[in-house]
Amino acid sequence: MKKQALVNIYHFIRKSTYNDGIFTQEDFDTLKNEMEILKQHQLPATYALKHDAVVDERYTALIKSMIDEKDEVGAWWEITKEMADKAGVTWKGCDVIDLHVKAGYSLAYLPEERKKLLDVYMQDFKAVYGYYPKTIGSWVMDIVTFEYAKEKYGVVGGALCRDQKGIDGFTLWGGYVNGAYYPSKVNEYIPAQTHDMQVDMPIFKLLGPDPIYNFEAEVRQGAGGIYTLEPAWTCGQSETWVKWLFECITEEEQLGYGYTQAGQENSFIWGNVGEGFEMQMRHIAALRKVNKIRVESLRDSSLWFKRKYQLTPPVTYTATTDWNETFDLKTTWYSSRFYRSSLMLDRGVLSIRDLYIFDEAYASRYLNDYIDNNESVFDALPILNACYWSTKEKRASIDFINTETGEVIKGIGVSFEGQEDDKTWIATWQIEEGTKMVITHTEDAMKFELNQESHAEPMAWGIRINTLPVLKSIQEHKLVCEHENFTYALTVENATCMQVEDQVFITPTAQACTLIMSQKENLKELEVFSEDYLKDAKAFDAQVEAPVAIDEEKIKNVKLIKPVLSHKAKVKQYDEVAYCTMMNPNEESTIYYTINGEEPTEEDTLYTAPIAISEDCVVKARAFSKGRLASDTVEAKYFNTLPVKSITSPTKFDDRKVFNRNRANDLIDGEKGSLNYVDNCWLITTDLLDVTLDLGQMRDLTGINIGLMQSKRSGPYYPEYITFYTSQDGENFEEVFNQNVQAESGDPDIEIKDIVATINKQARYVRVKAKPYKFYFIFADEIIVQGK
Fold it and tell me: CA 107 from chain center: how many Å?
């Protein structure tokens, strides 16, 4: 059954990323651009402010001038020296700003200190905005602060990071997968099972994780990477992947509701995130227009959640298609207040790839104590932790096996279906004609049943847990486990259990068996839905976001959305023709363009069809509409180059695919890099860059050009120098150009330079050398050789 899909656009905002805490214009401009684009699409958002942004007048003025009643200004929970000093708490950082987890996050402080820090934040926030924030979020945060924020300041919702391993000192693995849950009073990361032990404030998961590869990156060879909606990363910039992810929450069968969180912290500079962010907002706006999704602030989603649910509900997150053709996987996640599990189909083999039990008594490591290192850990009670228990030789897994042969069962396909109670989720795995496995997920159990028609060959089957390092003993029908000195158990019904070395074999006594996750039978009788919801569930679920009323006066002051061009930059050979196409995302508007690099006006050429490009030029375009402000200008650069027979290089390039698709050949593939350093167009190295181009024959050369990027926060700096050489025989090279390009202290944080040499030489070979600045990366893109 398909239900509602919710989208939160969530921006967390810092005044400064640097240790000295200074205001950085690039960060401010990123937020300003994000807000302008959201206003263009009339999309509401949450702006979660770190304390340094709360007390900065520039941010205050911008936010107050841009938000409306559907937007939210919330709290982003990172600690600064200024907060600590005001609270009378000893600051544990080395500088004014310290984003290490043992200094810049609440985990670094004792419970009473956390409350003092929150008091300071809330007082300063109210002094600026006139009210207390309704939601609070952070990469990592503690339940003491969450509950104190709710009880004293009326906070209604929270946010924590998606599952990840070790990034920036944050490991979160094993919790509620996607959407929101009511946390335990002793553990911020897992849902409570009862009213008495839960904090009645839903916590939502950040970053929009990929349901397949966010959980495969650590265990599947060739699948490493970051798989979230963040437009700073490759997936979040891919229109194919973004559309696929939204199909997972809008088109797939599901229980509960679909959910994802979009947006980006302003610490990523606009050049890195702008293109991906603009694309995502266009797609979100299009889905909302046809009522596929409801877009709202985290505050409004939290209030909706509290109206519908009184306990954490079962929710599914499913992908029956795979954007990655290399693996072609299918998965479903089931999360309830008792457990989370994931089934995965990999080329006909269905397995359980993840299984964690939730127990509200399992206390967080940071409930009463502070962290004194830079590796924070949040988890639940594992039955299967493939992320940590897998080895190079064996992936940790729970498999279905033929007990006569010991082989893993292979089938055909799998389908998923929710039941009318909105709590039960059924996976049907077709093994062969006349034989299928039906896996029924209920709130506290998973039932496995082999159904065979009379003509089918009987199959003896069982379940194999191929590693279970937390197992302490098998007591009757219970697998008794221990994790972090906490004892818990998995009950196995209608089956026998046997341990063989590090494996556990579960053999059904009939054709069905059940894994029971909770040892308290009465808890599953508690109703998760609110009384108001149960009175008229259909009417409640039928509610969709009311059409956005366009304020004609306000919209006059909002720029049109920029046209989308087919290229940012394109390198082609002299005898080729390139075509520049333009897409207008605005209704009732037109595009005017120039090809001489001048700013377009309505007196210039009207775009009606793709533009044929044969010469070097700069295409610039803007959207215009009567009564509206014209869009910003967008441009595309086109370059001619001589054909290259081959390119060779002794340079050792970075191994990561996003920075090295085809070694030195990336420098002659016709694609110029953008300010987004993960756009698959930059070739990078910390070695001496040394490449030689063979033009195949003698040429009259007039120019050589190479693109370089600098992004001080991310690692690339301009090299100390660039030198160009030419040769007629490939052995004897003559230097024709040398330029020092080392970064200056006043340079922008991020920019691109084209190093251009005008020459007059006859040559067949061109050589380019660049020496890195200290130990920093060189980011290089297309080498253009001009002449005839």
Answer: 24
- Lay out the sheet containing 413-418: strands in order across: 413-418, 425-432, 435-442, 445-452, 512-516, 486-493, 478-483, 471-475
Backbone angles phi, psi at 553, to 5 degrees: -70, -45
What pLDDT, on the 0 to 100 scale, is given for residue 746? Answer: 61
CA separation for the pair 165, 301 (Å, rounded):
27
- For residues 246 and 210, give the distance between their C-alpha atoms in angstroms, rounded to a whole number: 10
Q: Can you list the alpha helix ranges (DSSP code H) found in 25-80? A: 25-41, 51-54, 57-66
Q: Look up residue 657 and give its two tokens.
A: 């695919």
Predicted local confidence at residue 354, as pLDDT: 97
Tokens of 661: 């698709």
Provide the 10 A C-beta neighbour count for residue 655: 7
Contact (CB, 8 A) for 761 and 690: no
The beta strands (E) that lie in 358-424 are given as 376-379, 381-385, 398-402, 413-418
Q: Return phi, psi of residue 5, to 5°.
A: -120, 125
Cα distance between residue 510 and residue 515, in whole Å = 14
**% of the chain surpassing 70 pLDDT:** 97
Which of these, 52, 60, 45, lies nearest to 24 by C-alpha position?
A: 52
The C-alpha atoms of residue 8 and residue 126 are separated, in whole angstroms, by 24
Residues 755, 757, 758, 760, Cα dihedral to 10° = -150
Q: Specify the higher pLDDT residue, 200 or 716.
A: 200
Structure-token pair, residue 399: 């498999």
**H or E stretch including 508?**
strand 503-508
User: What's the CA angle centered on 176, arms 172 and 181, to 5 degrees?
Assistant: 120
Q: Please name every residue paired with 780 in a beta bridge, in sequence order, or none if there are none.
A: 683, 708
Please list, in sequence order, all residues whose beta carbon lies within 8 angstroms of the beta carbon of residue 203, skipping any fewer than 6 positions away. 146, 157, 158, 159, 160, 180, 181, 182, 183, 188
Element (H, E) at 505: strand 503-508
Both tokens assigned to 703: 């120019």
pLDDT the model gives residue 519: 81
| pLDDT > 90: percent of the chain | 80
Number of C-beta neighbours around residue 754 at 10 A: 15
Which amino acid, residue 295?
A: V
State the Cα torsion 52-56-62-63 to the nearest 10°.
50
What's the CA gap between 530 and 537, in Å, rounded?
10
